[in-house]
Design a protein that fits this description.
Helix content is 42%, strand content 5%. The chain has 4 helices and 2 strands; from the N terminus they run ααβαβα. Helix 3 links the parallel strand 1 and strand 2 (85-87).
């Protein structure tokens, strides 16, 4: 959802988000509730495919965002020297209700807007 929000909001800029997960199964589709919540907001993430953090080079990115502290700790264990790690506080809604996906999407959207504001001020 974070990648979808970021890329939709950053359209027309040189910025682009790519997501990867600490427990992601490469090639897996997003959860149906995530797809439906984002569709409700006018963003199509149905074609998204999951990717494991083992397939990325963190220093190739301007910023790396962990959606919560647990993910940040796992990321830091895999990449102890990551200069650009940011940590948000968004509970993972996976396996939860549509309402939890809606709440997570609201929080992610707010954090993405703040991140884009920071990025655009640096330009």
């Amino acid at each position: 959802m974070a990648e979808g929000f970021f890329n939709a909001a950053a359209g027309g800029t040189p910025w682009r988000a790519e997501s990867a997960g600490v427990g992601a199964a490469d090639g897996a589709p997003p959860s149906l509730l995530a797809v439906l919540e984002m569709k409700r907001r006018g963003i199509d993430i149905a074609a998204h495919k999951a990717r494991s953090i083992s397939n990325i080079v963190p220093d190739a990115y301007e910023a790396v965002v962990a959606l919560d502290r647990e993910v940040a700790a796992l990321f830091h264990a895999a990449f102890p020297v990551c200069r650009a790690l940011r940590v948000w506080s968004v509970p993972d809604p996976y396996g939860s209700s549509a309402g939890e996906y809606r709440r997570a999407a609201d929080q992610i959207h707010e954090q993405v807007e703040e991140l884009l504001e920071i990025i655009t001020k640096k330009e």
